[in-house]
Write a structure and sequence with these properties.
Largest sheet of chain C: 2 strands, antiparallel
Largest sheet of chain A: 2 strands, antiparallel
Number of domains of chain A: 2
Radius of gyration of chain A: 24 Å
Strand content of chain A: under 5%
Chains: A mainly alpha (414), B alpha/beta (262), C mainly alpha (300)
CATH class of the largest domain in chain A: Mainly Alpha
Number of helices of chain A: 16
Strand content of chain C: under 5%
CATH class of chain C: Mainly Alpha
Number of strands of chain A: 2
Structural class of chain C: mainly alpha
Helix content of chain C: over 70%
Number of domains of chain C: 1
Radius of gyration of chain C: 19 Å
CATH architecture of chain C: Orthogonal Bundle
Strand order of the largest sheet of chain A: 1-2
Number of strands of chain C: 2
Order of helices and strands of chain C: HHHHEHHHHEHHH
Helix content of chain A: over 70%
CATH topology of the largest domain in chain A: ABC transporter involved in vitamin B12 uptake, BtuC
Distance between the termini of chain A: 38 Å
CATH architecture of the largest domain in chain A: Orthogonal Bundle
Distance between the termini of chain C: 53 Å
Order of helices and strands of chain A: HEEHHHHHHHHHHHHHHH
Oligomer: heterotrimer
Shape of chain A: globular
Strand order of the largest sheet of chain C: 1-2
């Protein structure tokens, strides 16, 4: 591994990257004052960094290829770590209790600020789970997902502004608007395949944002809508702190509802059709599955959750404008799904909490957030396209002759 | 005998290339019919037209279902063709690789079941019963095809021959009356081929399913089929029993001539 | 009428820039059927590199033409290097992975490169020196079209001719065509497919960088985000012309450029970007093969 050849390779790689990053990293010109700033120490850092990272890169690539070969021969069938934990009651019962206790006491033990961040993370859990239906299960890359989020948020803001409707009234309306927009936009675009679909959804997402930005009479343009009320509780007056704690529990409730519904969908006849569609469109149709309807249902279901999450988002920030709904927001949600593991509920939750909470707590890194997100997408795709948590294999229970595999397992934990 | 599949003057053009040229074909109930011909003769294109993947340029495709209703296949979407009772396998295996063997077969049950989104979320009694039924039925199909031992394996981890059989099992789960097999023996060793031979006969005899297959393995074709159609350059050049085909000079010239010992 | 010509010429200029970027999209798509999402970023890095070189040389008091030449060469070389590295890091390991994975990787790369420039340089707009001098002979028509605009249109035309020549007559060009037709087959007859793919990325990046230098000098300012907008527009143009087809990319770019110019000139400038996206959506839905693309039935 550390032979001469390897060191030479890494040395050349590091030279290459030093060359590559030289103008952008090292030189900075100030054209107003005519000063050139040379930042040589950065070149040195790039050199050292890429020297060592190239070892790691090659090592991981080799390991991946080795794993693939083994898998081709059918040798490895090791149980992923998350399944192992989920299988053993003595692991998962205490873990579950610990999580419940943590969730319950969190807003009372931590500061208002941290509760607010947690609410944001929970919003991403919901949007992530919604997008997971579209991307993870049905394999449709939707880059305009945030448009439905915007639809939900603006539904609440506008309905409240014009008609004074409250949070709980608009929550289902927002979800419904997401659904309607999902069907309206989905219908024309779902004939397209793979990357074309990605681009068209991106286009639609941007169209909706740009319309919100320019149609002042309708959406109040870039200045947005302020003073959106937080969710109410039988008209009780709440302080900011109380309202936040209340919103936190509302979010926990909505997350649980989302998990419940998504799990049910995933394990159903429709969910299987979505996965089959992802695996092979032609075969899927040849097995009698209506491609258009299946795609549309996945797309619309995803949009519904985005609409709902949008309502919560508007209620949380009390102010929205088009700047909250850029393409990058869609990509961050995509990142949540990809990092956690496409098609896995636990994975998406894990992905959302990691990606949203980590940068908040590691303040030093917060400006590198998007840089790291970009790198995460690439590295995950190259080394672990399945995400951190690999989706579970569903084992079904049936009567009939018992096969040699353990069959006394209910559908799916996780 | 009344044919259950009748194809009249089927023509398929790809740009300037005529892949199928006024092809006629008829299959009677419980027949095993083979479609043979050199590579690129248009056999798979024929399947793709039948199953609604390609829209044929001209011609008519009719089926007579077990309930004696006739139906035109032209213009049907692939899933509607499957619903009408035709199921197929693919030459280049197209399983759902990251689903288990059982799930692959359960997908086949999709068009015979009906639970929707509301049912999936509510998980009411009807949905639960249907779901259990899907599992039971799918397992039964696997047992019939001899794949029960792999039930919870991922499809991608199956040995090659078993993957081909799983394609058949998946198609069987859609309850077809006509099964289209596209080179089911490709890549199989002699033992697996013999098992496949038995399996196909069993599907016909026990399930009463009519079979149309494309195959290059002449030994299998000769022993299995009741009748054979030979196509070359999209045209039918001969049809008849295996014995007739063997002695047909046109066939020998176009096809068997290069491979006389087969 | 004069207004019409003014718009037409500004549309052609705009379209020429799109064309320089769109060529890269279309070539890469033709070879590996991947939408190189990070292509716009390569263009942006080209513009930044040129800005840095040009600024230093201006401070040293060099002559304008020399600066233009050197800055362009450096920008092109660096963009090529970025294009090459991009492919090696983000796409090559995914050659046999599902297309969705490669596309997500491409999006990641785009996000990464944008923020890399944002963090290493600045998030503000940087003034870009005007490198193309106004020629006195062109004074009479200056109210219609400026020298930089003529330079842009001419450069695009020259690049197009050179590329066509390369694709049609050189060994590499033949290998590229073979690879885009059938990669497996090309490999069997001895084409070094990895090399062909690298070269495609390098050539595409070079033309994008030229576009970067020209537009930056024309518009007069750049920031880290220009690659994204221009990239999307160029992609729309490539799709409009028929992705995978090089004449299509140029035609699509000119059509889009003119359509945009007329739209902003006659209708409204608020919805300029919406207009481009609407064209994209409409084209993809009703004629996904584009103007010059062939719509072929996918093999089963």
């Amino acid at each position: 591994m550390f032979g001469f050849e390897e060191i030479k390779k890494s040395f050349l790689t590091s030279l290459w990257f030093m060359f590559l990053t030289f103008p952008i990293m090292v030189i900075r010109v100030n054209t107003v004052q005519n000063i050139v700033e040379w930042r040589w120490e950065r070149m040195f850092m790039i050199g050292i960094g890429s020297f060592f990272l190239s070892f790691l890169w090659r090592y991981l690539l080799e390991r991946k290829e080795l794993g693939q070969k083994k898998a081709d021969l059918g040798e490895v069938d090791s149980i992923p770590w998350n399944r192992r934990i989920a299988r053993e009651p003595r692991f998962y019962i205490p873990a579950l209790i610990a999580i419940c206790v943590f969730v319950l006491v969190f807003p009372f033990t931590f500061s208002l600020y941290q509760t607010t961040i947690m609410i944001t993370a929970l919003i991403y859990v919901i949007t992530g789970l919604g997008l997971n239906i579209v991307v993870g299960l049905a394999g449709l890359l939707d880059l305009g997902y945030v448009a439905f989020y915007a639809v939900g948020a603006y539904s609440y803001a506008l309905l409240n502004y014009h008609f004074g409707l409250g949070f709980w009234t608009v929550l289902p309306i927002g979800a419904g608007m997401g659904l309607i927009f999902g069907i309206l936009l989905g219908f024309p675009v779902l004939r397209l395949k793979g990357d074309y679909l990605a681009i068209v959804t991106l286009g639609f997402g941007e169209i909706i944002r740009l319309v919100l930005e320019n149609w002042n009479d309708f959406s109040f343009g870039p200045s947005g809508i302020a003073n959106i009320p937080r969710p109410g509780l039988f008209g009780i007056q709440m302080s900011l702190h109380q309202a936040t704690i209340y919103l936190y529990f509302v979010m926990i409730f909505l997350v649980l509802v989302t998990i419940f519904v998504v799990r049910r969908l995933q394990d159903s006849r429709i969910g299987r059709a979505w996965i089959a569609l992802r695996e092979d469109e032609v075969a899927c149709q040849a097995m009698g599955i209506d491609k258009t309807w299946t795609k549309l249902s996945a797309f619309a279901m995803g949009a519904t959750w985005a609409g709902m999450a949008g309502v919560v988002f508007a209620a949380k920030t009390t102010f929205i404008n088009p700047a909250s709904f850029t393409l990058w927001e869609s990509i961050i949600i995509l990142c949540v799904v990809v990092l956690g593991g496409m098609g896995s509920v636990i994975g998406v939750i894990f992905g959302a909490l990691t990606l949203i909470l980590l940068p908040e707590y590691l303040r030093a890194f917060s400006e590198y957030r998007l840089l790291i997100f970009g790198a995460v997408l690439v590295v995950m795709m190259v080394f672990r396209p399945g995400g951190i948590v690999s989706p579970e294999r569903r084992i079904y229970q049936f009567k009939g002759t018992a096969p040699d595999k353990p069959k006394a397992e209910a559908s799916t934990p996780g | 005998m009344e044919p259950i599949l009748q194809v009249n003057a089927l023509t398929m053009d790809f740009g300037g290339l005529r892949a199928l040229d006024r092809l006629d074909l008829e299959i009677g109930q419980r027949e095993i019919v083979a479609l043979i011909g050199p590579n690129g003769a248009g056999k798979t294109t024929f399947f793709n037209c039948l199953t609604g993947i390609y829209p044929p340029t001209e011609g008519e495709m009719l089926i007579r279902r077990p309930d004696r209703k006739t139906k035109k296949l032209n213009g049907l979407k692939p899933n509607h063709v499957t619903e009408a009772g035709l199921a197929r396998t693919f030459q280049n295996i197209r399983l759902f690789q990251n689903m288990t063997v059982l799930e692959n077969v359960m997908i086949g049950r999709h068009c015979r079941t009906s639970a929707g989104i509301i049912g999936a979320i509510a998980k009411n009694k009807a949905t639960r019963q249907e779901e259990n039924k899907i599992v039971e039925d799918s397992y039964a199909v696997l047992e019939k095809i001899g794949l029960a031992e792999f039930v919870n394996e991922f499809a991608k981890n199956l040995p090659y021959g078993a993957q081909r059989r799983l394609e058949i099992a998946r198609a069987m789960a859609t309850e077809p009356f006509l099964l289209l097999l596209d080179e089911p023996a490709a890549g199989m060793n002699p033992l697996e081929t013999r098992e496949l031979d038995e399996l196909i006969v069993r599907i016909r005899d026990q399930e009463g399913i009519t079979i149309l297959l494309i195959e290059h393995d002449m030994k299998l074709v000769m022993s299995l089929s009741d009748r054979i159609y030979v196509v070359d350059y999209g045209k039918k050049i001969a049809q008849g029993t295996p014995q007739e085909i063997k002695n047909n000079p046109a066939v020998i010239k176009a096809y068997l001539g290069e491979d006389a010992d087969a | 009428m004069e207004y019409f010509f003014e718009l037409l010429l500004s549309g052609l200029t705009r379209g020429s820039i799109y064309a320089l970027i769109a060529l890269g999209y279309t070539m890469v798509y033709g070879i590996i059927q991947l939408i190189n999402f990070a292509h716009g970023e390569v263009y942006m890095i080209g513009a930044f590199t040129a800005l840095i070189v040009a600024s230093i040389l201006t401070m040293l008091g060099w002559n304008e033409i020399a600066i233009l030449f050197i800055a362009s060469v450096v920008a092109v070389v660096y963009s090529m290097a970025y294009g090459y590295t991009l492919e090696k890091v983000a796409y090559k390991p995914l050659r046999h992975a599902p297309r969705l994975s490669a596309l997500i990787s491409a999006i990641g790369m785009s996000l990464f490169l944008q923020n890399y420039v944002l963090l290493a340089q600045t998030s503000d707009f940087m003034p870009f020196p005007s490198l193309i001098p106004d020629l006195e002979i062109l004074e009479p028509i200056a109210h219609l079209i400026t020298t930089p605009e003529i330079a842009i249109i001419l450069t695009t035309a020259i690049v197009m001719v050179l590329l066509t020549f390369m694709i049609k007559f050189t060994r590499v060009g033949k290998a590229m065509r073979a690879t885009s037709q059938d990669r497996e087959m090309a490999m069997l007859v001895g084409v070094d497919v990895n090399r062909v793919i690298s070269i495609t990325f390098i050539v595409g990046s070079a033309t994008a960088a030229l576009g970067g230098v020209l537009i930056a000098s024309h518009v007069g300012q750049i920031n880290f985000y220009i690659g994204f907008i221009a990239g999307i527009k160029a992609f729309v143009a490539a799709v409009l012309g028929g992705i995978g087809s090089m004449p299509g990319a140029v035609l699509g770019s000119l059509v889009l450029g003119c359509a945009e110019a007329f739209f902003t000139g006659f209708v409204s400038s608020d919805y300029e970007d919406v207009f481009a996206f609407i064209i994209l959506v409409v084209i993809l839905i009703f004629r996904p093969a584009g103007i010059l693309g062939r719509s072929d039935i996918s093999k089963v």
